[in-house]
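User: Fold this; tokens only.

Assistant: Input:
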Amino acid sequence: MAFRDIRIIGDPVLRTPCDPITDRDATVKALVEDLLETVDDEGRAGLAANQIGVSLRAFSWNIDGEIGYVLNPVLVEVSDEEFQDGDEGCLSVPGLWYPTERAWYARAEGIDLDGRPVVVEGEELMARCIQHECDHLDGRLYLDRLSRTHRVQAMKALRAQGL
């Protein structure tokens, strides 16, 4: 296992949709171990594989003391009447937090390393994490979901950081 460096906005891997995992081989097992070790750090709620430079559909989470992972996740359900609009940040967009509307509840389905079905679901922070990480796997950043005003502020802040 290895604690991996986080790719930062501007790296093309973050804007490229991730490929499905077709073989659950030693490489994928090592990826899962790296995802789990890298997400297990203070202040980290979730981590998509492309954030550590691997363009495969997998993410890990670290919510309320529960750490886990899912391969080939697909967002299958979100609440369409209840929303949350709290501040959201991203390891790949360091230091920036902006109000980001997300569904209150989310559910993703995928598999584990043995090919068994995995369901990841939750409300509030877990729902935000699921949606955020699935966005990453589709080549999107939370910045894409910001209101026009907040997006302009974020772009100015990124330029000021040299990103």
